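hey team, just a heads up i'm posting the complex here instead of the shared drive bc the drive is being weird again. everything in one block, sequence lines first with there labels, then the predicted structure for the whole assembly after. its two chains so it's a bit long, scroll down
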Amino acid sequence: MEIFVQLLINGVIAGGTYALAAVGYSMVYGALKFINFAHGSIAMVGAYIAFVLVTMADVPLVPAFLGSMLLTAGLGVMVERVAYRPLRRAPKLASLTTAIAVSFVLDAAVMIIMGADIRTFSLTGMRSYQIGPIYITPVQGAIILTSLVFMVGLYGLLTRTKLGKAIRAVADGISLAEVSGIDTNLIISAVFAIGSALAAASGALIGMDTNLQPTMGFIITVKAFAAVVLGGLGNVWGAVVGAFLIGIVENTGVWFIPPVWKDSIAYGILILALFLRPSGIFGKKEEAQVTVL
Amino acid sequence: MELALVVHLLVVITIYGILAISLNLVVGATGLFNLGHAAFYGIGAYTSALLVKAGVPWLLAVLASMAMAGFVAFIIGIPTLRLVGDYLAVVTMGLGEITRAVFKNWISLTRGPMGLPGIPHASILGIEFDTADKYLILGIICLLITFVVAERILYSPFGRVLKGIREDEAAVQALGKNTYRYKMAVLVVGSAMAGLAGSLFAHYITFIDPSSFVMWLTFFIFLIIVLGGLGNNLGAVVVTVVFVALREGLRFVGLPLWLNPAALQQLIFGILLIIATIFVPRGLIPERKVVYE
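-- predicted structure starts here --
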């Protein structure tokens, strides 16, 4: 039973990192109605930026973390400019193709610069705290705290500020937002900046908690996407719930099935979710299904 | 370059050519965003290798591997073909990864990451295709058959419906076509062709392991058909020749030691795909226009 509680906590921690990645995913989908396949790779780049700042430039952990979020936000804006904006009016297949290509380019670039080996932050002086029957590392505590802070911050931003209002307006309908005098290109850039910064936070935290690898982006993409679909595409808060659900299910799942299948669990949930409820738990009835048999 | 190398490249080209044509039917002609193509290729390879190792003649084994790939496609198609583009992309990607997890973890059958060594060469009625030269003949025959079948499909009334689905599925439905069935048929046929390619690969290399069927392969084939002109089989084959030659050629350029050749390949092809999608969306050799009297 104690092990189960520990697995549950692990699930919440994993869910926190997925949630940070998933909200950006969901916001991009909301604004552009397209799945940003490169989102996980952007998170991976963020993790590596934090890694380089901490281990090679001797920047303290917290400024390095924030610096990586800032730089990655810039990367996200640039990716949208170069690879997605020229295709905004093209068929969906086109922007989806470039998104996959961007993720491969980012993975390859990091692999060339940093090598394909697994890297670790090797944070010294960290030891686990024991709370009752469970163990938790300072990084894991930071994950729960950071994800909570950013979620609340994002909620404030989306509901209480003018920028948030504009983002929601673009998500509701881009043409309508445009005729209302909103600079939609600027808002979309802002969405990419926010989403990428949060992705960087997710990647860096995963990197600190476990390790870094140029291929880690793919798994983040899949987990975040599964969370987004589970919560209902474009629904930011649904994505958060979906993320925690996936984190918890896959971590407690190793109680029942061999751990080698852990990463397959997210796919399983995703496929099941699409099969049973394509519009997500909180989604509106959308055009997830086109074929009515 | 030695002649033996050229022959080897040509054999690889015939196998990749079959993959390109089959993915072209599914993605290029019908517009189904299938990212799990490598899985069907792998299913074909494993089915055929295991059967021949158990004493089944190759000709029967290859039919079985096509049937197996087609059958799995059918099962996968039931839930996924009701989904629209982006969902389909991620679900097929997920299924591709699950399939690879099965190859990796069903150790009693596939020997997992250790792979299957000593797969016999293909043979038909006592004729052994045990050298690269002989294998090339077999490869060309299979490629030609695939090409002719795919062309017949594309330029038949059935093929016209497929292209209609790609352009506007709702319109095709309004004309009274059951688009779900058409999509299912093309997915099954395309996957069976991938199964054929897998069998050819397994009995040529004589060793397979899960790393041969990664998503990168699907992506590579994807790039080939996007550049070759979606829906154009001849373009697909021509670009296959160029790309396989380019890919293998990169190995002989004197790269500095720190440069990871696989990553460099990925970087170059990724950038090419972005450029191609934005600037030559119809490919180098655009789809033939069909004019009706």
